[in-house]
Amino acid sequence: MKKLSFVVAAIVLLFSIFAVATYLYNKQKADDANANAQKNDSILERDYSPTMGDKNAKVTIVEFFDPACGTCKAFSPFLKQAMEAYPGKVRLVVRYLPLHQGSDEVVKIMEAAHQQNKFWEILDAAYVTQSSWTRHHVVQPELFWEMLTHTNLDIEKAKQDAKSTAIAQRIQQDISDARQLNVTKTPGFFVNGKPLINFGYQPLQELIETEIRNKY
Amino acid sequence: MSDPQYRQLLTPLDTDWMLIFTCWLLAAAGTLGSLFFSEVMGLKPCVLCWYQRIFMYPLVVIFLVGLFPLDRSVVRYALPITIIGWCFAVYHYLVYSGYIPENLQPCSEDTSCAEINLELLGFITIPMMSILSYSAIILLLFTFRRRTQS
């Protein structure tokens, strides 16, 4: 039995080391993420970024998103609920982070829609029809244009605008801001400048609630 | 007390048993370590890393079974697996250090096998730890075989 307890002790020890190392690593990562977000607070949003909600709201959610990302789509109703739960207290700012193959085309169209004041409408339409214009996570831009014919977007104008350098620069700016803010996955959330560290509905909910309590 | 198997369980920790136990410890540490790199630190394993994992993970079970009671034939089953894993580790190390150009080996799409993701203390890399673990296990198994053959 001595040998058996020896091995059991070794197993317990190995798992303890693993657990402690995981805890320390995650804590370090969270501290780094917080420090980095604080340092780069000024680039969290840009004046051109699409925004929803009261501009005087004291809680700002910044979301780096990709229209082709399934999890971003899944979070869309959650964000709407969060804004309805605290009317006038929460605003949402979105930033482009096209990570899927072909997404860069789509976000240019989104920004062109933004110039026609139809960003949120087109975003909703994009999410609803997401599976129809993506194939195995690869965007099919022509299918996206096809989907847009069912919306009231001025497609001819959008097509022209999407090619402009101004739009290309905005997208590029968002991508480089994301890099500086260490956002490598979508959706990437910040609430009042604090990064969402453990990903999920519940942690995001808690982060929003904490900020509501702090500010109101 | 006359049952030999029962008696063996009561004998103090002997050298032969400790050799296989150390093999198990190395395999278990390698398994948990590699899982730490991929699952906690988020380093994506490249193709060659996967082949080394494939031959390291089963060793944890094989050695553990071979310990209760100590089975002298554990070498027969564990050694071939360990040597194959060792070959992958050496190959990976050569790719990593630039002796073999990367375009001659299969991974180029997702994570490059030649890219250095992690250096502990400035010189300990993941393929190096893999070679060391596999080499140590091979050495221990050969020692065990020599001792138990006589």
Characterize the main sheet of chain A: 5 strands, mixed
- State the order of secondary-structure elements of chain B, H for helix, E for strand: HHHHH
**SS-derived structural category of chain B:** mainly alpha
Low-pLDDT parts of chain B are none
| Number of separate strands of chain B | 0
Computed structural class of chain A: alpha+beta
Helical proportion of chain A, percent range: 55-70%
Structure description:
The complex is a heterodimer of chains A (216) and B (150). Chain A is an alpha+beta fold and 216 residues long. Chain A has 9 helices and 7 strands, in the order αββαβαααββαααββα. Chain A has 2 domains: 2-39; 43-215, Glutaredoxin (3-Layer(aba) Sandwich), CATH 3.40.30. In chain A, the strands form 2 sheets. Chain A has a 5-stranded mixed β-sheet. Chain A has a two-stranded antiparallel ribbon with strand order 4-5. In chain A, helix 3 (103-115) packs antiparallel against helix 4 (119-128) and helix 3 crosses helix 7 (155-162). Chain A starts with a helix and ends with a helix. With 150 residues, chain B is mainly α. Chain B has one domain: Bromodomain-like. In chain B, helix 2 runs antiparallel to helix 5 (126-149), helix 3 packs antiparallel against helix 4 (74-96) and helix 4 (74-96) runs antiparallel to helix 5 (126-149).
